[in-house]
Amino acid sequence: MQGRASRQENGPSLDIYSIGAGYHFPLTARFDAFGIVSIEHDELSGSGADFNKDGPTAEVGLRVLPLAELELNASAKWVDVEQSDSGATFGARYYLMSHFSIGGRYESIGKDESIMLGLRLEL
Predict the structure, then answer these.
(1) pTM of the predicted protein model
(2) Which end of the chain is more exposed for a tag (fewer CB within 10 A), N or C?
């Protein structure tokens, strides 16, 4: 299970909420493939082209653990909320403890690009 919430503000504001499920497929001890399917809610306001929509997303990717506490990942992502778009993501995550980490991610979907930083608690 995966849940995510984000808020972006640079003039207009964009709120994104998603919930989904995925699976990691081990390929070796430190290398695996993953897939995630989610429902996403996007709400754009203050742009002149405001919208409030829901839609499906899907992501498939690879991750590698070059060190026990460092994860590098890349994926292809498809989003069908306001319009159908696809793109790529690249990220890194550092595990402070086995279930707690900090990470960053660059995402380019259609014409939109974003950089995200965050904390993860795995239950």
Answers:
(1) 0.83
(2) C
